[in-house]
Amino acid sequence: AAMPPVRGRDFVMQRSWLDTGDEKMICGHSVCHQDYPPVKGYVRGTALLSAYLIRSNGDDDGCEITYISHTDPK
Questions:
Q1: Mean pLDDT of the chain
Q2: Domain START: where (predicted)?
């Protein structure tokens, strides 16, 4: 829950992913879905685009993660 005076947010998102071997990408955006109506006490935000790009950094035990978000919390 959010601290007053800010109200909590919720999002309903569709996600997809792509695995090219060297890179992995997870992308998402907001959708309307009849099974997930707005929740009382929360503001429904809109994610126009969110994405994770995961790349090996050359080490066997490490990676670089980039996160991009274009979101309207309303």
A1: 93
A2: 1-74
